[in-house]
Write a structure and sequence with these properties.
The complex is a heterodimer of chains A (631) and B (317). Chain A has four domains: 23-223, Pyruvate-ferredoxin Oxidoreductase, domain 3, CATH 3.40.920.10; 241-424, Rossmann fold (3-Layer(aba) Sandwich); 431-499, no CATH class; 505-630, Rossmann fold (3-Layer(aba) Sandwich). In chain A, 36% of the residues lie in helices and 19% in strands. Chain A is built from 19 helices and 21 strands. The radius of gyration of chain A is 27 Å and the shape is globular. The two termini of chain A are 48 Å apart. With 317 residues, chain B is α/β, with parallel strands linked by helices. Chain B has one domain: Rossmann fold (3-Layer(aba) Sandwich), CATH 3.40.50.970. Chain B has helices at residues 35-48, 84-93, 106-112, 114-123, 168-173, 189-201, 219-227, 245-249, 262-270, 289-293, 301-314; strands at residues 56-60, 75-78, 99-105, 128-133, 136-137, 143-144, 180-185, 206-211, 232-236, 253-256, 275-282. The longest helix of chain B is centred in the first third of the chain and has 14 residues, at 35-48. The chains are: A alpha/beta (631), B alpha/beta (317). Chains A and B meet through strand 7, helix 8, helix 10, helix 11 and strand 15 of A and strand 1, strand 2, helix 2, helix 4 and helix 11 of B.
């Protein structure tokens, strides 16, 4: 591949074979602060608006401004888009754009590229003043070619400087223009997207970014001789495109929640950024508390006083909130808690995905603390589950935890535009007189449910307490009372479970292997199962949305398969390790729960690499399992 | 009839609340505990201010004094150790119609809940806060608290505590946006009453430091206080508390104090030798977070639907 400062056209000889017909995976990586994410998010939004299926994964450095031209500095985004619905990040990228030759190594470590991946590389480093950088560049170039990447060196800086004075801010939009040419994007949609992205900026900024877009597009048209027009789908209904944190925020608006009490924590915080812009128009407010504990305490106070509330956090914050979750369960205060999971334990991997909080939510409390727990598996579910969680919390007078994760949080995906309906919104608070003679915890024998008085209601006065209490709300140390009231609180989960349907099975209802998943891995697991089934493998999958209580009928479903295995993004022992045996083996989190619940010998496959699972990785595992089952 | 004009009836309240409308079960504190005096005076205050029990909420943390809400026939929230402030703030933030009181102890407020204490002062939400300071952990049975004097012998410091105490007045007055700070003692009921009344009437975070006895674990403090009567100074001045002359005369010393002067208030709080009773500081202009909290309450479902649709438009494909 030659450098392309001359007007000679670069060529890519071999046809690129995408992992599925009619789709491509593109990555843009740069130093932190160069705007690769903004470029990619815009590209994803443009593609979604044209009618492509889209899924994005952000590549986020842990620090704000790490030293440039290093692996730590790599910041960027992956966009998988195609002519059909896209549900996961896919396998290796077909094309990548790099603003220097060092940052791709962050992704090479994660096996993001393959032989044949096209690499569009900023070439200004080849002529850098520093000998060291020049050498680094030359070395990397050789290495990339040895790895089989099709490197095309591109004079991004030179071209941008023809349009603007400093290329550091703006090169991303030039790259966007180049990608728009390569993928034959509609330039009007692209221009509108730029106007939207920079809507708070002065007109001059918008103008120069539009010029950069056009500049990148024109340069590519003149200098590149390949294009991959990814055809859009025919959209049958109106769609919206957003990431999971925005969808959670949108769900908060749709649930009519009036108080969102939070403390900044990665990767949950951007929900509050979204809400800070708009929740006031909906009669709600954001409260940024002094710490995680106060954030949930404030939300509980608000909910106790009849204002529906949500608190949003991630693993370390969940750990701090635990005592209050126990109080909400004991005092029966409705509350929605969103946990955007990240890598743990402790501070762990703040910007990376893990499904590591399940057991902490289910069993992280002293005593018996039944908490309804659900997990969103798509961006769309991030929206609808908040509405559902608010309703469950208030109907069952209980805290409800909604689990999402870093993969959903920043991933963008189009989904059918929700048709807003009245029933989603919480009703105004009841201030009518409380019925005389009805106790604040008048538990129903059969269901464990009770109605709650709200301050302001005459005759309803009671004191909520975290102490064991009688139905009058009075502290009670009576042995029989504690046994009975603990049972009432537990019974609410049984009552709730009666409203659930058995999960749907993806694939045949019986066979050799059943994969059980939860959360953001849905798309990758289903795609892998489809690929293996297409080769004739007898494998099905099932994805759980409710984890406490579990959806019904699992044992019966499991009994129709020779083997059941969970696939998760959390830790489990490697059975090939000589130290690990059946006696000391520790399973992944859902596997523990399902084994205990069903007494089925459920296996698991999981890792804590902090990455979304790729379908290819799952396919390999499924093939291996099916072979073993045959043998 | 009887020469009465019928229109005087127009001003009669719908219901007149009596003491019994606030009294619940008999409290279970130790005999001689200072908490009783506060409870009686609070009930009297509620009656005198005619606070609707259905619109009144007592919020507490954990500790002897935090059992307080259980003894009031109002709404109550007996929550977690150290966490009364965020809960009370959440209750009041968007419910301007509720009267919210916070009951906290020296362990609850100055130790485990110190973080939220500082921030609650800064938020300046309209809460009436009473810190019951008996300088000891009572409910967990005799451990040194952050307000215990140096040398306090307890189960955790059998050879005497080794650090000087936190001074809650000094700390509160040191926080930005502080709004109302007063000090009283449990053994002077008229002063106690007048102080919590002034606190209740102040709009904002009204902090009342109540110096009180623990007959069980700090019994010698009672003697120290009563014997050291000459160390008690009554603050007078037009921003102070309203007291009968009889009560004023019961003090050996009075000091004229301008409660708007924060520097003067801080000097009084820092005085190691004497205790000043009354309102040390009052600022009605401090920014109130609950005023922000109520600026957009009461939206209809239709308004909320419109807001949601307008957000969805921005993300439409």
């Amino acid at each position: 591949m030659s450098t392309s400062t001359s007007p000679e056209k670069s060529t890519v000889k071999e046809e690129i074979v995408p992992s599925l017909p009619g789709e491509h995976i593109v990555e843009i990586v740069s130093d932190s602060g160069e705007g690769a994410q903004k470029c990619g998010q815009s590209f994803a939004a443009i593609s979604a608006k044209m009618g492509n299926g889209v899924w994005t994964v952000e590549i986020i450095p842990a620090e704000i401004h790490p030293p440039s031209r290093t692996i730590e500095s790599a910041s960027g985004i992956r966009i998988r888009f195609g002519s059909t619905k896209v549900t996961n990040m896919g396998d290796e990228a077909e094309l990548m754009v790099a603003l220097n030759e060092q940052v791709p190594y962050a992704r090479i470590l994660q096996k993001a590229y393959k032989e044949g991946t096209i690499m569009l590389l900023e070439n200004k480093w080849a002529t850098d003043q520093s000998e060291h950088i020049k050498t680094q560049y030359a070395t990397a170039l050789k290495d990339f070619e040895a790895r089989g990447y099709k490197v095309i060196e591109i004079p991004m800086e030179v071209e941008c400087l023809k349009i603007i004075k400093s290329a550091r801010k703006g090169k991303n939009m030039w790259v966007l223009g180049m990608l728009c040419y390569i993928y034959d994007r509609n330039l009007d949609i692209a221009k509108n997207q730029i106007r939207h992205t920079f809507r708070t900026k002065p007109e001059a900024v918008i103008e120069s970014n539009l010029l950069l877009l056009q500049g990148g597009y024109d340069w590519a048209a003149d200098n590149l001789d390949f294009q991959y027009p990814i055809k859009p789908m025919e959209l049958k209904e109106e769609m919206v495109v957003m990431n999971g944190n925005e969808a959670v925020g949108m769900g908060i608006l749709a649930a009519g929640i009036e108080v969102c009490s939070m403390y900044p924590i990665t990767p949950a915080t951007s929900t509050s950024h979204f809400l800070a812009e708009c929740i006031e128009n909906s009669g709600g407010l954001i409260h940024q508390a002094e710490d995680e504990i106060a954030a949930i305490g404030f939300a509980i106070g608000s909910s106790y006083a009849g204002k529906t509330a949500v608190t949003i956090t991630s693993g370390p914050g969940l750990a701090l909130k635990n005592e209050f979750i126990g109080l909400a369960a004991m005092g029966e205060v409705p509350l929605v808690i969103v946990d955007v999971q990240r890598g743990g334990p402790s501070t762990g991997l703040p910007t990376k995905v893990e499904q590591g909080d399940l057991l902490a939510v289910l069993y992280g409390q002293p005593g018996d603390t039944p908490v309804i727990t659900m997990a969103a598996s798509t961006i769309e579910e991030c929206f609808h589950f908040i509405i559902l969680a608010r309703k469950i919390a208030e109907s069952f007078r209980t805290p409800v935890v909604v689990l999402t994760d870093a993969n959903l949080a920043t991933g963008q995906q189009p989904f059918p535009r929700p048709k807003v309906c009245k029933e989603w919104f919480s009703p105004p608070i009841d201030q009518s007189p409380w019925k005389q003679g009805v106790d604040p915890y008048e538990w129903d024998e059969a269901t464990g449910l009770s109605r709650r008085p709200i301050p302001g209601q005459p005759n309803g006065m009671y004191t909520l307490t975290g102490l064991a209490h009688s139905k009058e709300g009075k502290p009670s140390y009576d042995p029989e009372n504690n046994q009975r009231t603990t049972a009432y609180r537990s019974k609410k989960l049984a009552t709730f479970k009666n409203t659930l349907k058995p999960p749907e099975i993806h694939g045949d209802k019986e066979g050799d292997l059943l994969i059980v998943g939860w959360g953001s891995t849905l798309g990758a697991i289903d795609e892998a199962v489809d690929r293996v089934r297409a080769e004739g493998g007898s494998v099905s999958s099932l994805h759980l949305r409710f984890l406490s209580p579990l959806e019904p009928g699992l044992k019966e479903i499991f009994s129709c398969f020779k083997k059941v295995m969970t696939i998760e993004i959390n830790y489990s022992d490697d059975v090939s390790d000589p130290v690990i045996n059946n006696d000391n083996r520790r399973y992944s989190q859902l596997a523990w729960v399902l084994r205990a619940k069903t007494l089925v010998d459920i296996d698991c496959y999981s890792n804590v690499e902090g990455q979304p699972l790729s379908p290819r990785k799952i396919v390999r595992k499924l093939q291996q399992e099916l072979e073993q089952l045959k043998a | 009839m009887y020469g009465l004009k019928p229109d005087i009836l127009v001003d009669l309240p719908e219901k007149y609340f009596c003491l019994t409308d606030y009294e619940k079960v008999a409290a279970k504190w130790c005999p001689g505990c200072g908490d009783y005096a506060v409870l009686g005076n609070i009930q009297k205050l509620c009656r005198d201010e005619q606070l609707d029990p259905a619109k009144t909420v007592f919020v507490s943390g954990i500790g002897c004094s935090s059992r307080f809400p259980h003894y009031m026939k109002t709404y109550g929230f007996h929550g977690l150790h150290g966490r009364a402030f965020p809960v009370a703030s959440g209750i009041k933030w968007r419910r301007p119609d509720l009267h919210v009181f916070v009951i906290t102890g020296d362990g609850d407020c100055c130790a485990i809940g110190a973080g939220s204490w500082i921030h609650a002062i800064r938020f300046n939400i309209d809460l009436t806060v009473m810190l019951f300071n008996n300088e000891i952990y009572g409910l967990t049975k005799n451990q040194t608290s952050p307000t215990s004097r140096m040398g306090t012998v307890s189960n955790t410091t059998p050879r005497g505590s080794v650090l000087p105490p936190i001074n809650p007045m000094q700390t509160t007055l040191g926080v930005g946006n502080v709004s109302f700070v007063a000090q009283t003692v449990d053994w002077n009921p008229p002063h106690l009453y007048a102080t919590i009344q002034a606190a209740h009437r102040h709009k904002g975070f009204s902090f009342v430091h109540i110096i009180q006895r623990c007959p069980k674990f700090q019994s010698d403090l009672v003697e120290q206080f009563t014997a050291g009567k000459d160390k008690l100074y009554l603050l007078t001045g037009n921003e102070g508390v309203e007291l009968d002359d009889v009560v004023i005369k019961s003090f050996d010393h009075t000091v004229e104090h301008d409660a708007h002067n924060i520097n003067a208030a801080r000097s009084l709080a820092e005085d190691p030798d004497n205790i000043y009773l009354g309102v040390l500081y009052r600022n009605t202009k401090a920014q109130r977070y609950d005023e922000y909290g109520v600026h957009n309450i009461g939206y209809t479902v239709e308004q909320k639907m419109e807001a949601l649709n307008s957000e969805l438009n921005k993300y439409a494909v």
